[in-house]
Design a protein that fits this description.
Strand content: 5-15%
Shape: flat
Strand order of the largest sheet: 4-3-2-1-5
Number of strands: 12
Order of helices and strands: EEHEHEHEEHHEEEEHHHHHEEHHHHH
Number of helices: 15
Structural class: alpha/beta
Length: about 450
């Protein structure tokens, strides 16, 4: 949850934490007192553990630290940012080159069992902290995961591809939230494509050397989503759809940052065309645009005016995408950024909505966030304008009470009337039975006969 923090004692591990069996909880810094057996006391929980980068993945290090009892992990970088190294503020470890941009701590796909926070610390900062603990000075450090809150409008960016499966649920569900946030949030969809020139897809003769993965003679490429170059959806098809979605955004979303027709088109496309047979079908695409209220002619013109997808010529929209991708440093898809900060965790409605709501300056949070951010069912809350449990409490108003009492009165009246009618019917049946029994007596007396009671069976004879 963005807005939280963790402050605990820091220990610096003396190994890489790549092998859990070799993790020494009695080692590291600062030096502690010894027990009766002469061994240094183990790390005292709760604690934050600092470990050097390298030797294995971030995920493996953090997992082993969690198993060792750490409440949080700080990975100390072993390479400087080139800018810091050039200025003399930082010196990379021997054998390590500087890095042009901050490395991304990414999940390798196996980190679902990790529940503790972890940060990567710049080398120049980590060296200062390590010097303190190695000098046996106690260090207490705070980890906080705050989003920048510059003003009363949040900007959020989604990097994905038209064939990305993970982002589909988010794209289906989040339109209503985007509309509810309105001008208080500005959305930007970004399409991830590859630079064909860097990937070696432009041959010496200027021709496309990457088969059907690229457009513009190998300039702009995408991976084959079905891993079959001879059939199905090609990389060039993905690039074309990426350009189309960027044009739709420019036409219908760039001004207000909401772009309802863009969301509608993406959902119509996923519903109608997201199959091998129809992905590149012009008729299916036009049908999706028609249902979304998008002018197909304007979009085709936008795609052509940007430079098109044929021939050895640049496309200015796709060039912008490549530049934006390099500037953001995104490498794992899908990727969501809120106020230029990468959102760690799954691309789910509650995660992203809460992150957006946490990005407003103090006192500027929109009402939809105040009402729905902490609601168990955020989507229903946004749709209805209230959180379910709150509505139940507020629903017992005077008018509802009056209507309820009137309804109960009608029910009681109907029940009483039915019972009254049933009682009348029973009385009439009893009277008729009595009359039927006495009528034979009157008939016998009229004929001068006698009536007696049999002593044997007690019946009239």
């Amino acid at each position: 949850m963005y807005g939280g923090s963790l402050a605990q004692t820091l220990y610096y591990a003396s190994d890489t934490l790549c092998d859990y069996n070799s993790v020494d909880t009695r080692g590291g810094y600062p030096i502690r007192a010894k027990d009766d057996d002469g061994n240094m006391l183990p790390w005292q929980s709760p604690f934050i553990l600092m470990v050097d980068r390298g030797g294995c993945t971030f995920v493996q290090k953090v997992r082993n630290a969690q198993r060792a009892g750490a409440a949080g992990v700080i990975i100390a970088d072993n390479s400087c940012l080139c800018e810091a190294e050039r200025s003399g503020k930082c010196h990379s470890d021997p054998g390590r080159d500087c890095e042009e941009r901050e490395p991304i701590m990414a999940d390798d796909g196996s980190g679902s069992d990790i529940s503790i926070p972890s940060f990567l610390m710049f080398k120049e900062d980590a060296d200062t902290v390590k010097a303190e603990v190695e000098a046996n000075h106690p260090v207490r450090i705070e980890m906080s995961w705050q989003l920048p809150t510059p003003d009363d409008r949040v900007e959020y960016v989604l990097w994905a591809t038209p064939t990305d499966i993970i982002s589909q649920d988010f794209l289906k569900d989040f339109k209503e939230a985007a509309v509810a946030l309105g001008k208080r949030a500005y959305f930007t969809p970004e399409m991830y494509i590859y630079d064909g020139e860097r990937s070696g897809c432009i041959g010496i003769d200027g021709q496309d050397d990457c088969y059907n993965l690229c457009t513009n003679n190998g300039r702009y490429c995408a991976t084959d989503p079905d891993n079959d170059l001879d059939r199905g959806i090609s990389g060039a098809d993905v690039v074309r759809e990426s350009l189309r979605r960027m044009c739709i955004w420019k036409q219908y979303g760039e001004d207000d940052g909401v772009g309802v027709p863009w969301w509608d088109y993406v959902n119509e496309f996923m519903f109608r065309c997201n199959t091998e047979e129809f992905f590149s079908s012009k008729q299916c695409v036009e049908d999706a645009m028609s249902h979304a209220g998008v002018d197909a002619g304007n979009i085709d013109q936008c795609m052509a005016d940007s430079g098109g997808l044929e021939g050895d010529s640049p496309n200015n929209i796709l060039e912008t995408q490549l530049n934006d991708k390099d500037a953001s440093g995104v490498v794992i898809l899908p990727a969501m950024y809120v106020n230029k900060v990468s959102i760690r965790g799954s691309l789910e409605f509650p995660v992203i909505f809460r992150a957006i709501c946490a990005g407003y300056a103090s006192g500027t949070t929109p009402s939809v966030c105040a009402t729905c951010a902490s609601c168990p069912d955020q989507k229903s809350c946004i749709s209805n304008g209230f959180c379910g449990s709150k509505k139940i409490q507020e629903s017992v108003s005077t008018s509802h009470m009056v209507y309820a009492m009137m309804g109960l009165s009608v029910v009681f009246f109907l029940v009483s009337y039915i019972q009254h009618r049933r009682y009348q019917s029973q009385m009439q049946a009893q009277v008729k039975g009595i009359i039927a029994e006495y009528m034979p007596l009157e008939s016998d007396q009229a004929q001068g006969g006698t009536t007696a009671v049999s002593e044997e069976d007690g019946e009239f004879t």
